[in-house]
Specification:
- The chain is built from 7 helices and 10 strands.
- With 315 residues, it is of the alpha+beta class.
- The protein folds into 2 domains: 208 residues, Trna Endonuclease, Chain: A, domain 1; 43 residues.
- β2 and β3 form a beta hairpin.
Length: 315
Amino acid sequence: MAKVTLKDSGILFKEDTHQYFRQSDGKELQGITGVISRQLFPHEYDSVPKRILEAAANYGHAVHSSCEIFDREWTHDGTVELQDYIDICKEYGLVHVDSEYLVTDGENYASAIDKVFKGKDENSYQICDLKTYYGKLKGEKLERCRWQLSIYRALFMKQNPKAKVDKLFVIHLRNKQKKDGSFDHIKELIYVDPIPENICFDLLAADLAGEQFKNPFAVPEDIVPQLSRIKELIEEKNKVEEELNALKANLMSSMQFLEITSWATPEVSLTMKAPSTRSSFDLTKFKAAHKEITDYDQYMKTSNVAGSLMVKIAA
């Protein structure tokens, strides 16, 4: 297969007003961030003062510009954020293809992808969004990024039908001084799972029709209180386990000092086990030492494992 060359979108982007126009007839198209705000996160910034939003936007623009100039001209402006971006690119083997790559559905929507990197082969790519958020990128913030990158991916593949998108990820950069003089320094790459293209286009269609999109990933309202209670219980459990472990460590230290191995009351008994070793079979090392064996199925024991629910709470 011949190498895929990314297609021009035919869109003109006016950066000063953040507007998208179709070059063929001058029709103005809507951006993606507005759709996401209207349809999925309408109250995200309700409690944030305008001056803070403007300052955050200016900072984000400066970091984006710094990284874009470096990728285009290899010019380093000396900022910590740019050096962190360079370090991440080196660590993950990222090869830059384009910055602010414009994608569109050709009719109603357009947007610019912050970074396009090479994928695992010459016809595949990785799509990246740069963020300069305050604090950890998690929860609703990360879900917003997932939607944004997934819609970019859907438009990217519509515009380049022979291309593949291997991975979607956010590069989170920040180095802002806080009131206490310390720095809020963040340098991380976070992969996100893509939302299927049909769901992304359903979102755009609902927005175009002036309808409220029904998010298939939204938690039903009657479930939300149960999730809140789970969070409370896990936090209580963690506190109890922390206190229990401290008590056990103190008791074990006392028993070792007194050179005894057991204590008992009518309510509880303590028995101290001596240090020991445990052996386990290293399958990886065994395979490396016995490359003549190609079929391990006859030696493997299979058992059924019941399904389970993994719960993680925000820190």
